[in-house]
């Protein structure tokens, strides 16, 4: 390379004196080109990273919003349950229902253990510890029951945050339990999402009304428990209802006051099918279709059917059902007296 250049020695710029004067050679030029290319690549990746961080932050905010929406839906669900129970209580004098929010610790523990894939008694001290007499001894679920309904929401959220994110220190858990949750987070992170949106089940508390006082259903007799369950069934929705021998374990008064009265009331809004040997139920319950059936040689046959206006149906009630003739006489006596 020979070019005339003012200010150079001899007026000639050669490759040697150019590189000597400016410290550049072919190797440095190639390295500079690589650095420029690397810089451009890093700037592009930096821009991509910034976009990903922006999107990630947006996703975090959306996740928080959706989580709060789930919590509000859970609270709304319990409000609706409480309203329905209140309506049921107004329409029944035999039982009282109460909603114990997040109070079903048996089902709650079962569903939680399914999520963490640990059925049985492992981590009992962390979740639901009991002594040999089945008395509560500690653990999250037993502690949950000691809280008020409102405090249970806060307590549950603290529990989830501590085991999933390690936030807070209000609840202490064993290292094996925390380690197991951490393993879930690494191996099946989708299960952590399910844990975050898990809520303990509610418990429906059923009380018997006896002599104007409320009693636990567990302390009632078989007949009282049957009466309570029938009362509850008759308060459900308007789907068809099939009841098999509701008179079992019930005395005559309860059959009349509960079963017969309930059937007369609820048959106007739903179909009720009753299998019974007690004549008071079809006769005084206002049955619109009585079907006499017979079982022999492994087969069920229909012998007669229809309303009480049919003579053969009345005869079947009198012959097959013990006390059927008395029930019919009492019914028609009341009808004739009302028409006088």
From TrEMBL:
The keyword Coiled coil appears for this protein: yes
Gene3D superfamilies listed in its UniProt record: P-loop containing nucleotide triphosphate hydrolases
Species lineage: Bacteria, Bacillati, Bacillota, Bacilli, Bacillales
SUPFAM superfamilies on file: P-loop containing nucleoside triphosphate hydrolases
Record protein name field: AAA family ATPase
Sample GO molecular function, one term: ATP hydrolysis activity
Coiled-coil regions listed: 32-83
Residue intervals of the ATPase AAA-type core domain: 89-281
Source organism of the structure: Brevibacillus thermoruber
Regions that span the bilayer: none
Coiled coil listed as a keyword: yes
Keywords carried by this UniProt record: Coiled coil
Pfam families cross-referenced by the UniProt entry: AAA_21
